[in-house]
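## retry 2 of 3
previous attempt timed out at serialization; input unchanged, resubmitting
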Amino acid sequence: MQEIPPDPPSSVPVENLSSALVPESPTAGCMYCGAENGINSMFCSSCGRSLLVDCPTCGRLVNGSLATCPYCSGEVKEAVKARELADRQPLKPVSPISPVISQTSNTQVAPTPPPSGSDRS
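## retry succeeded, writing output
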């Protein structure tokens, strides 16, 4: 019977073994401050702004730091430019909401007759 040779010793120290086995997740730079964030992040970990934009071609939310939409291959840069332009626009003042005062009337409502066809004898 043949003996199976033992595994050769690993070149990675045991304390670094768990980090060596886990691949690094892809990152993308924030379109506003340039900080690196995970590709699936919704908000920048540095400036807190939203990283998602609507794809101008298919309308899905995508990471604004991507060159093209992963769903339809549309250009995402146009959506980023539109977002930046919208962010520069001053907010319109909101008019105060006036309270609605309901007034009850003293008119009486006649009861509705039963639907026809329901003959009870």
